Amino acid sequence: MAEFTAAVYQNEFLADGGTDVNAIVTITCKGAGTAGQSGSGAAGEIIIVDTSGSMGPATMAAAKDAAQAAVAEIVDGTWFAVIAGADRAMLAYPQVASGPGMIRMDERARADASAAIGRFVGSGGTAISTWLDLAGQLFNSVPEATQRHVLLLTDGENRERPGRLDEAIQRATGYFQADCRGAGTDWQVAEIRRISQALLGTVDIIPRPDQMKAQFQEIMRAAMSRGVADASLRVWTPQGSQVLFVRQVSPTVEDLTNRRTPVNPLTGDYPTGAWADESRDYHVAIRVPAKAIGQEQLAARVQLALGDDVVTQALVKATWSNNSELTAKIDRQVAHYTGQAELADMIQEGLAAKAAGDEATATTKLGRAVQLAAETGNDEATSKLKKVVDVENEKEGTVRLKRAVEKADEMALDTASTKTTRIRKEPS
Amino acid sequence: MTCPSCGASVAAGARFCESCGAQLGQPDVVPAPVTAVDDHPLGDAPISAPTRKPASSLPDPPPAGRRPCVDCGGEVGPDLYCLKCGTKAPSERDHFSEQPASWVAGVCDKGVGKARNEDSMALLAGAEPGSRAVLVVMDGVSNSVDSDVASLAGARAAREVLRMPLPAGMGTTEGRQAAGAKVLADAAAAANTAIIAVTDPDSTNPASATFSAAVLEGRKVSWANIGDSRTYWLPDAGTPVQLSVDDSVAQEQMAGGMSREAAETGPQAHAITKWLGRDSENFVPTGGTLELTESGWLLACSDGLWNYCSSPEAMAEQVRATGSSDPAAVANALVAYANACGGHDNITAALARVDVAVDQTGLGHNDQTPTPAESGTPGGEPTDG
Question: A333-416 belongs to which CATH class?
């Protein structure tokens, strides 16, 4: 049985008249077990491989190999299916015309699925909305598979009427999770990130075909280790208060503020998807009416809920004080993650400005990103930034845009922009 | 001799430096060891510190079941915050009252400016008004660790020592006083032992507290004091007196001729020179006895109250202003008054109502304890004559 714990990091002291409370809540899961085997329903896995004409021979061969490796990682008993995606989505395995569109994994299914993947041929265009919709229909045909996960690989830009993909994303949101990978450099990071963010998954670039197999194995292993099907971050705030934002800040920055589902007038649920043995950090910011010096009050109860069961709780407090030594301090965790969130914004906005030809804005934003990455010790971001800009002064954040940049490096910087680093926790 | 400010040489005994004008050589007041300087409302207390809280040293847990929020009337959750407005439900330790008998009551309150209540009190009283009462008030030193736990443990230990009547000694007044003082000193020692018992042996900043105890037996009041919590006698009509003498820098300055106002508002106003706790060097209290001859209030309180009405006259005025003869009402009113004045420190007020019968026959005092009815209706009962 999975066990959850919660810890809160904050400076609860507010100056006279202060209203804004910031806290980092770390939620840790232990003993999650294996997907579909912890009594909360069966697990369902769908692998979607882009089989459009743009997939070159080397990429297609690697994709087949990777998809077969992913199938090998799916544990027996898991409901699964394989979709070949082009202008339309085709159910490649199991090859059924009616009834449940998924099959329980066993030795034979594994071999048959691998064979079906081996017969993939690239042709046609890219209509990702149809892929997502088919995945939804397949999951829908197996009601007992309540933990739903998709692994999606594409190599090109979506070729559909604007809005279609967003509609499909909306239909899938809250129904299944998706980890997305882009092969090569002809796909759009922003487009695929929209899918992965809405569907509570990850996005990354696979620049070379030979890296694909390892990535697929890793994604599928991670999916299989998520023994807790679906959890919500439940946030209670006092009457008269306002939730400024709720965002996941580790392992990646994901703004959840607008994804609130009301539970009652004072409480809302924010989706967190499935959990493995892991630890995630959330930054909550609450505005409460100021109280008199010396008063203490609760600014938020931050809980993790599995269905209606609250499995852990952290209390975010506010205490008004006229001791400026107490009130002036910013909690280290809060400061760190505030910097990391800004870093993600600066990288994304900087790259967007660069793509639009606005070099001045790109230089400023990427410069600020270099400065933030250095300040917060995000070495991965620093090394990826250095492939896109020449750093003049890291501390000041002065940079020059590199004249010749590998497209893959720029995309890798973009996809990694939301990854954050942790700082050592203060002794509690 | 050289000037500490500019280094120029100065004549011995000079009060100012000829070169830079800096003041030299402070007046010959020996600075006492400073232990508790309350600059900040939250003191130097760390934002969070490990605590060792033996369950027995805490007040009884609040009754189970639904509790209404004091602020909005909503329900208090199991985490002790309101489920509607988030207001923290006051903990039992932060605000508690005792009323062992109708004529004796006390209130111990966190105040406004402090993060926790380090004051404590422990009261005893016989059911018969005016019979026997014990008031123990202690004030935990805010920059020591776990002083809230320690002060309550100390007050309760002292109360146990004072449960039995004070001994009569050898029959002489002096013997009686000496024997009584010995028991009060034992009570202070018991409080000290209890404080040390709940102090973390590894603590580099061991808990410490003041001690003020008053025992009323009939018309005789005995008191003992360590630190700057106080005992006052506040007669309804006569001259009010502060019975206890503070062990504080302010008190020493007053003894040296400084005015009460100046001493008690100076930078070391709250520095105490004696205290209880592991690092206490002297825990023998000072004290005395007084024979009461008129009706009034016996009050034991912490500096959280007397900060706002230090002189006996000012304190008597505050008690009179409450206009009540109910000790619980008076204690609540005094705490409310201190909170209204800012409540910078924890506040404790414990009172015993003393009603001395007006002796209409002029034949001397009646040794029987007078009842409120007798004193409340002098000559009011019609007689057969």
Answer: mainly alpha
